[in-house]
Design brief:
Number of helices: 13
Shape: globular
Structural class: alpha/beta
Largest sheet: 7 strands, mixed
Bound molecules: iron/sulfur cluster
Number of strands: 12
Strand content: 15-25%
């Protein structure tokens, strides 16, 4: 594998990311073509959630910013603007990598001030995106959490998590480990266009199956349910049926929301692929980032009824080891996103 040092001025990038040094690289392989990695040495890695009292978790670790999974609707796009980076293609292709995340986490967990609170991962961008295959930060992070018996949860769309199965099992022996996989729909056409960089939904459900088979209960965050494209009763039924067949211990639906950053990018995509829906979206999201409550309630009710019908829940296998991660609980909806705003996958 070849590293190509690009000629980004280190001083400019340092100011941009607020760190001491930035090394910018590309990899000359098909899977990373067109992707630029900005390697930084972060000053801290455990972040306190703004407005934590209203959130289901208080502390997060995010080793990456930007995400090559490139979901058009991604709620985290706005956070790239805090780095003066583009929230569209830039979010998909300019990836910030906190290369010292494992050592920094180990150090912070050793601090006498740290009380061993739950740490949520995958709350901003996917920690098992493709870059993780190259940088391998998560094994060190999980090992640190295991060694400190510190409870944690991971939310992901990445099948790469199975690489770390042994570590997850080791951690689950000494602390609470909650895993959730995000699968909003199983429609392949929709997947190819709206989540172009992600593993296929059925591959993600294979992850659920494998984790559950190994005794780590795994929930599914059914997110996002995309209005008019992924919300037909037949689509909901097919998705919940597939989730049930994977052995998921829970399913939590979440309707698409379109905050600034994501909204513009999604609307452009909608205009290209489904122009006849643009007006309907304008009406549905006329009040802001969220679909109306009546619509959200309808989807939630439908999914819960289907979950009952297909038997997803505590009676299923793996339930005795089930840990429902905070990141799988209903999404908090703060009104003013900040730089460290949680986005959830
Ligand atoms: S929704 Fe999640 S997986 Fe998709 S681009 Fe955003 S962070 Fe990555």
């Amino acid at each position: 594998m070849r590293w190509d040092n690009l000629s980004e001025p280190p001083t400019g990038d340092s100011a941009l990311f607020g760190t001491d040094a930035v090394v910018t690289r590309t990899f000359d392989t098909p899977e990373f073509r067109g992707i630029t990695f900005h390697e930084v040495r972060a000053r801290s890695i455990v972040n306190r959630v703004p407005g934590a009292s209203r959130m289901p978790f208080e502390w997060t670790v995010n080793p990456y910013r930007g995400c090559t999974h490139a979901c058009v609707y991604c709620f985290a796009r706005k956070t790239h603007s805090y780095l003066d980076l583009d929230t569209g293609l830039g979010f998909d292709s300019q990836i910030v990598v906190k290369t010292n995340a494992p050592e920094l986490l180990r150090k912070q967990l050793s601090s006498p001030h740290w009380q061993g609170a739950h740490i949520a991962m995958g709350t901003n961008v996917d920690c098992y995106q493709r870059a993780e295959g190259r940088y391998e930060l998560m094994p060190g992070i999980i090992a640190a959490l295991r060694d400190h018996a510190n409870p944690f949860s991971i939310l992901t769309k990445g099948t790469l998590i199975l690489r770390d199965l042994d570590l997850l099992l080791q951690a689950a022996r000494v602390t609470d480990v909650g895993i959730s996989v995000s699968v909003g729909f199983t429609d392949r056409e929709l997947w190819r266009t709206v989540e172009p960089g992600t593993p296929a939904p059925e591959r993600r459900l294979d992850v659920v199956r494998t984790l559950t088979d190994h005794g780590i209960g795994c929930g599914v965050l059914m997110a996002p349910v995309i209005p008019f494209l992924g919300d037909h009763p037949d689509q909901l039924r097919a998705t919940v049926r597939a989730i049930a067949a994977s052995g998921a211990t829970s399913v939590t639906p979440l309707v698409l929301h379109l905050r600034p950053g994501a909204r513009e990018w999604f609307t452009q995509w909608l205009d290209r692929h489904h122009p006849h829906l643009v007006r309907r979206y304008e009406r549905l999201y006329a009040e802001g980032a969220y679909a109306p409550k009546w619509y959200q309630r309808r989807i939630t009710r439908q999914v819960h009824e289907l979950a009952d019908e297909f038997g997803i829940g505590p009676a299923r296998r793996g339930a005795s080891r089930r840990v429902t991660p905070p990141s799988a609980q209903p999404h908090p909806q703060p009104s003013e996103p900040g730089p460290t705003q949680l986005t959830l996958l």
